[in-house]
Write a structure and sequence with these properties.
Diacylglycerol kinase; 6-stranded antiparallel beta sheet; globular; 18 strands; transferase; 26% helix; ATP binding; 2 domains; Tumour Suppressor Smad4; single chain; kinase; alpha+beta; Rossmann fold
Length: 351
């Protein structure tokens, strides 16, 4: 990891915005590794962070030590990489605008911020960094997920879990599919070396659930509270708490309700909708169905009843949650960069 001891701001450049790049070389079927090489060919070594070899927090420490520098950050990776990097960026003493480069499977955040639905390693990095220079800053809410397991005979059934969320968090059928894919990745790492294979696995586990329906009757096994008000749920198999317009690799579930219950990404309000099955999700992905609108809230609570275990996921990370309580509360606002619609007319220096 390169160490920055001193920074000299150029006096002959009107708009100098250095760019820090955080890359996961494992992401994107090898695209991450190629991007890492391309960025290193154009930027100072201290500006390029390999998440597998460098500590993100330590690599960004100079930003707090030099508040006079107008820096921007690019994160290249999947949802997990983006989430963990944002957690470190949120600890800085000032808001640093962040762009994202889509190297995962869903890439819903990058779709909304107009950086595209997927990216290869052969992207024109000079043009990309020019676009980052001209991108518009927009604030995005981030949320804290506190999953607390219940105790039996004084012993907690499962360790408590706290994590951050930017895109969405869910319980039920879509998390079950993600969990199946995640377990496959962990048992056979090569199975996740291809985006096409990722989509095939998503289809496989989704089709499997059509027949097994392991989340059937979810509404009878959970209690939902929105802003401390108990909500009566219809017959569902999945419940999703949505922070951004996109979900499920490009679906815009709240578009149907935007006229009556407008969605904003910086209003400290989360949108809640439900799905009735994995087949319902498939219909939504091709535009043949709409989700079930449950409501909006400033904070939410899920109470898992009985002795059941529940599949959950947050920004692509899936786990099995035992009976207990899950609290969803606002964490902070993060400055993100949305790609400008206008064509590039030249920009300042980025190194």
């Amino acid at each position: 990891m390169a160490v920055i001891d001193k920074i000299e701001i150029p006096t002959d450049i009107e708009k100098w915005r250095p760019i820090m790049v955080i890359v996961n070389p494992k992401s994107g079927s090898g695209a991450g590794k190629q991007l890492l090489r391309n960025f290193r060919a154009h930027l100072h070594p201290a500006q390029v962070v390999d998440v597998l070899k460098s500590n993100i927090a330590a690599s960004l420490r100079w930003i707090d030590e030099h508040p006079e520098v107008d820096v921007r950050i690019l994160i290249a990776g999947g949802d997990g990489t983006i989430c963990s990097a944002l957690d470190q960026i949120d600890t800085l003493s000032r808001r640093i605008p962040v762009a994202v480069l889509p190297l995962g499977t869903g890439n819903d955040l990058s779709r909304w911020l107009k950086w595209g639905k997927k990216c290869g390693g052969d992207i024109d990095v000079i043009k990309l960094m020019e676009d980052i220079q001209e991108a518009e800053v927009t604030l995005v809410d981030r949320w804290t997920i506190d999953a607390e397991s219940q105790k039996k005979l004084g012993v907690r059934l499962q360790s408590n879990k706290t994590l951050s969320m930017t895109n969405y968090v869910s319980v039920g059928v879509d998390a079950c599919v993600t969990l199946g894919m995640q377990n496959t990745r962990e048992s056979i790492p090569r199975a996740m070396s291809s985006r096409l294979l990722n989509k095939f696995l998503f289809f496989t586990f989704g089709t499997k659930d059509v027949f097994e329906r392991v989340c059937k009757g979810l509404n009878e096994r959970i209690d939902l509270y929105l802003d401390d008000v108990h909500i009566n749920l219809p017959d569902i198999e999945g419940l999703i708490f949505l922070n951004i317009p996109y979900w499920g690799a490009g679906v815009k579930p709240w578009a149907t309700y935007n006229d009556s219950h407008r969605q904003e990404c910086d209003d400290e309000t989360i949108e809640v909708f439900a799905v009735t099955s994995s087949f319902h999700i498939a219909q939504m992905q091709i535009g043949l169905a709409s989700p079930l609108c449950i409501g909006q809230a400033k904070h939410a609570k899920l109470v898992f009843k009985g002795n059941h275990s529940f599949p959950m996921q947050s920004d692509g990370e899936a786990w099995v949650n035992s009976a207990g309580t899950v609290l969803i509360s606002h964490k902070c606002k993060t400055a993100m960069l949305r790609k400008a619609d206008k064509q590039s007319t030249g920009c300042g220096m980025f190194f």
